[in-house]
Amino acid sequence: MNKPNVTVTVIGLGQMGAALADAFLSAGHPTTVWNRTPRKADALVARGAVRAATVAEAVAASELVVVCVLDYPAVRELLAPVAESLRGRALVNLTSGSPEQARAEAEWAAAHGIGYLDGGIMTTPPGVGDSANMILYAGSPELLAAHRATLEVLGDPVDLGPDAGLASLYDAGLLGLMWSVFGGWLHATALAGADGVAAKEFTAVANRWLKTVSWFLSTYAEQIDAGEYPGSDATIDIQVATIGHLLEAGEARGVDGRLPRLHLELMQEAAAAGHGGDSYARLVEIFRGK
User: Fold this and answer.
1) Which of 107, 124, 149, 170 is the most buried (most CB within 10 A)?
2) Which DSSP string do the residues of 201-261 spell out, in sequence order?
3) For the chain, which residues score pLDDT lower than 70?
């Protein structure tokens, strides 16, 4: 159960920052906001937020400070001058960046006695506030535990542990997974659509299929961690033959085949190296450069 009396400051009111502040307000948290362009706070102020005139004023207003701006250099530019004011407070950085940037920011925060969490928002602004959506956190587990009830109003908090770089690392990897899924779905939708199948009809079946695919991911994850890739479900050799049907169907319908050809090239590379009898999970070694 969240604590409505926890004071929160949100620095940065782009689409995502505004959504974060709105979620805190909706949950009853006294919320202070700051943005370089003050008018971006107007709608939030009309709903009860307090507009801070300066970053220093914004930081001083709350025990929990959330920052969501363009990039990490912008975070440092804004917060370095108020580092002493942040001492002893909790700073949650939901700005997108690299794992290396996140770790450097955590080191800076620690040097100034600032509690630090780095986060990755795994949704778009309209999804903020929905517990079905994840927000990844990395950094002090104790700090997350202390503020979990407050942060839960933004989405389901997922604790990735003390390494502050892991939220950014997961974020990058999960976005890559998303784009790969989108790409495969769009290619498949174009293929089915060439024969008059509506995207909505095809997607209803595709969503069911993705549940089976998720089972494969869990199975393959165990193989990857063990470093052993038994082809007991379907070998790479079998899948090389099967993907030929996809390419043939696409060519017959004028559908761009670059994406399935990439998968074929990866499988052929593994097979040529003597791993044709292994599972598809073996391809992770190619991505690892081995």
Assistant:
1) 170
2) HHHHHHHHHHHHHHHHHHHHHHHHHHT--B-SS-BHHHHHHHHHHHHHHHHHTT---HHHH
3) 1-4
Task: Note the pLDDT of residue 2.
Answer: 45
State the virtual CA torsion across 160, 161, 167, 168 in degrees, nearest 10: -140
Specify the pairing of strand 115-121 against strand 156-159: unpaired
For the chain, the distance separating the N- and C-terminal CA atoms, rounded to the nearest angstrom, is 48
Burial class of residue 274, CB neighbours in 10 A (0-12, 13-18, 19+): exposed
- Report pLDDT for 1: 43
Q: How far apart are CA 193 and CA 25, in angstroms?
A: 44
Look at residue 67 in the predicted model and tell me its pLDDT. 98
pLDDT tens for residues 160-185?
999 999 999 999 999 999 999 999 99
Instruction: At 11, list the tokens.
Output: 């620095």
Reported pTM: 0.94
* pLDDT, position 5: 81
Question: How far are the Cα atoms of 24, 81, 219, 263 from residue 17, in angstroms, in the given order?
Answer: 11, 21, 38, 38
Copy the structure tokens of residue 72: 């990490």
Give how far Cα 146 sits from Cα of 2, 89, 126, 151, 284, Å.
Answer: 11, 12, 26, 10, 38
* Strand 8-11 to 64-67 pairing: parallel
CB 76 within 8 Å of CB 105:
yes
- CA 150, CA 9: separation in Å to the nearest integer? 12
The Cα 52–Cα 247 span in angstroms is: 58
Distance between CA atoms of residues 46 and 24, nearest Å: 14
Please check whether residue 236 is in contact with residue 230, taking contact to mean a CB–CB distance below 8 angstroms.
no
| Contact indicator for 68, 57 with CB cutoff of 8 Å | no
